Predict the structure.
Amino acid sequence: MNQERIYTVLQAPHISEKSTVVAERNNQFVFRVAPDATRAEIKAAIEQLFKVTVVGVQVANVKGKLKHNRYGASRRPSWKKAYVRVAEGQEIDFSVVA
């Protein structure tokens, strides 16, 4: 996988209360990924970028919420997130990217 595709597949880490709990209990990390990204691409991107061994990848499509304002209703964009499980004893440090 080329370097440009790695940075388009992985958009950002998703930091939330749930992702923090999952990281502590299951050694999983949550990322916001491109809507057209596959599990194999996500796995390869994480392994190349963070130099860790990926055990499994689960993906979820998050539907955009319907919001109302004074101009009527609008929908926030839908997005995709990936739960990435790394090998036991390894950790992803978001402050240092290789």
Remarks:
- The chain has one domain: 3-86.
- DSSP finds three helices and six strands in the chain.
